[in-house]
# Entry
Amino acid sequence: MKLLDVLKERNISKLQLALNAGITPSDLYCAFNGTKPFYPKYKRKISEFLQIDEAVLFAEGEGEND
# Structure
C-alpha cells in the first residue's frame, strides 16, 4: 500500500494520521491490521489530510495492510 510509504516519507505516525484525519485511532489501527476495512469515509479523510488522490493511496489490486 502506498499509504504506509507516504506516512514513512512524511514522518507521520498512525496516531497523528488518525487525529488529523478525524478517525478514531483504534478504528484506524484495526484497518491497518486488517480486522476492519478502510471504509470509503476513512479513505476520503486520509486522502484529504495527506493531499494525495485516494486512488493513489489505495490502489486497486494491492492489499490494504501491505
The chain has one domain: 2-57. The mean pLDDT is 89. The two ends are 5 Å apart (CA to CA). The chain is about 60% helix and 0% strand.
